[in-house]
Amino acid sequence: FTYRKNFPPIGGTGPTSDTGWGCMLRCGQMILGEALVRRHLGQDWRWMRSQPPREEYISILNAFLDKKDGYYSLHQIAQMGVGEGKSIGQWYGPNTVAQVLKKLAVFDSWSRLAVHVAMDNTVVIEEIKRLCMPWLDYGGAACVELQGGMPERNGCLEGACALAEEETALWKPLLLLIPLRLGLSDINEAYIETLKQCFQLPQSLGVIGGKPNHAHYFIGYVGEELIYLDPHTTQPAVEPCEDSQVPDDTYHCQHPPCRMHICEIDPSIAVGFFCRTEDDFDDLCMRFRKLSHTRAGLPMFELVDCQPSHFACSVDVLNLNPDFSDSDRLERFFDSEDEEFEILSL
């Protein structure tokens, strides 16, 4: 996903292009798009121009088209971000876009994706299992379910929706996003090896981050270089054809992805993981524990079974925005919600 132009005005009277401010929103779309591809098409699926697209693929694309009624459109992300303290046209940090995607996923009853944003550098297993299996009733908590029926979800017919519900009868597929700050103005080199190892996990979706006010979607590494997709190309907005097919060439790379030295990455990032089943999540937790015991680098976050006692009792407390006005200096190095992060250092 890249910058687009000439789409319907956001909010009816807002911008018609996201050039210059929407790069982190596009990176959020990319990491979520990868999760949806794995959810509906499988991890081994690959796009081929010569083959007719699958119905699920068209449904995923429809969810991201630049129009107000797309579940994960730029319009929806920008307008939902207002609730996170971001005006339309303002640059997002990784944590903000993670929180917005979490809220938008509630309305996508076709994918039935459980999005968990792990705050305070801590992944709490109990919280995630409560989210993905609310019917087991952990103290009466449950994730939001939409009421009422709709004939289509993201352009997908009811039969496919029923199939999706059957597949997720025991576990709602999990998108786990972990916002982190791995240093002050530069990444602490003690975390570099651990970050590399995260890319090797089979559940990894990559990392959203980049340079200050210049976001990228990192999908892997070679040696000391990170491989990333760059949204900073402005393309015309895409309109579906009369037969509901979506011209999709501009949603796929026509050239090799970019590279940058790992030390150049801004320390404010969000790492993403996808677990289709409970076994996938249990396996991910096992791999997290192995990573925490390696001596190659410092752990980037903590994995715990239950919520620590020092955590706030109410989830709402975690969503409070800090009450201060951003200066240019703070915008240079910090997301506006960085007070929610614990600074990690040697």
From TrEMBL:
<keyword id="KW-0968">Cytoplasmic vesicle</keyword>
<keyword id="KW-0072">Autophagy</keyword>
<dbReference type="GO" id="GO:0004197">
    <property type="term" value="F:cysteine-type endopeptidase activity"/>
</dbReference>
<dbReference type="GO" id="GO:0000423">
    <property type="term" value="P:mitophagy"/>
</dbReference>
<keyword id="KW-0378">Hydrolase</keyword>
<keyword id="KW-0963">Cytoplasm</keyword>
<keyword id="KW-0645">Protease</keyword>
<dbReference type="InterPro" id="IPR038765">
    <property type="entry name" value="Papain-like_cys_pep_sf"/>
</dbReference>
<dbReference type="InterPro" id="IPR046793">
    <property type="entry name" value="ATG4_LIR"/>
</dbReference>
<dbReference type="GO" id="GO:0019786">
    <property type="term" value="F:protein-phosphatidylethanolamide deconjugating activity"/>
</dbReference>
<dbReference type="Pfam" id="PF03416">
    <property type="entry name" value="Peptidase_C54"/>
</dbReference>
<protein>
    <recommendedName>
        <fullName>Cysteine protease</fullName>
        <ecNumber>3.4.22.-</ecNumber>
    </recommendedName>
</protein>
<feature type="domain" description="Peptidase C54 catalytic">
    <location>
        <begin position="1"/>
        <end position="286"/>
    </location>
</feature>
<dbReference type="GO" id="GO:0016485">
    <property type="term" value="P:protein processing"/>
</dbReference>
<dbReference type="GO" id="GO:0005776">
    <property type="term" value="C:autophagosome"/>
</dbReference>
<comment type="function">
    <text>Cysteine protease that plays a key role in autophagy by mediating both proteolytic activation and delipidation of ATG8 family proteins.</text>
</comment>
<dbReference type="GO" id="GO:0005783">
    <property type="term" value="C:endoplasmic reticulum"/>
</dbReference>
<keyword id="KW-0813">Transport</keyword>
<dbReference type="GO" id="GO:0035973">
    <property type="term" value="P:aggrephagy"/>
</dbReference>
<dbReference type="GO" id="GO:0005739">
    <property type="term" value="C:mitochondrion"/>
</dbReference>
<dbReference type="GO" id="GO:0000045">
    <property type="term" value="P:autophagosome assembly"/>
</dbReference>
<dbReference type="Pfam" id="PF20166">
    <property type="entry name" value="ATG4_LIR"/>
</dbReference>
<dbReference type="GO" id="GO:0015031">
    <property type="term" value="P:protein transport"/>
</dbReference>
<dbReference type="GO" id="GO:0005829">
    <property type="term" value="C:cytosol"/>
</dbReference>
<keyword id="KW-0256">Endoplasmic reticulum</keyword>
<dbReference type="InterPro" id="IPR046792">
    <property type="entry name" value="Peptidase_C54_cat"/>
</dbReference>
<keyword id="KW-0496">Mitochondrion</keyword>
<keyword id="KW-0833">Ubl conjugation pathway</keyword>
<keyword id="KW-0788">Thiol protease</keyword>
<keyword id="KW-0653">Protein transport</keyword>
<dbReference type="GO" id="GO:0034727">
    <property type="term" value="P:piecemeal microautophagy of the nucleus"/>
</dbReference>
<dbReference type="InterPro" id="IPR005078">
    <property type="entry name" value="Peptidase_C54"/>
</dbReference>
<comment type="similarity">
    <text>Belongs to the peptidase C54 family.</text>
</comment>
<dbReference type="GO" id="GO:0031410">
    <property type="term" value="C:cytoplasmic vesicle"/>
</dbReference>
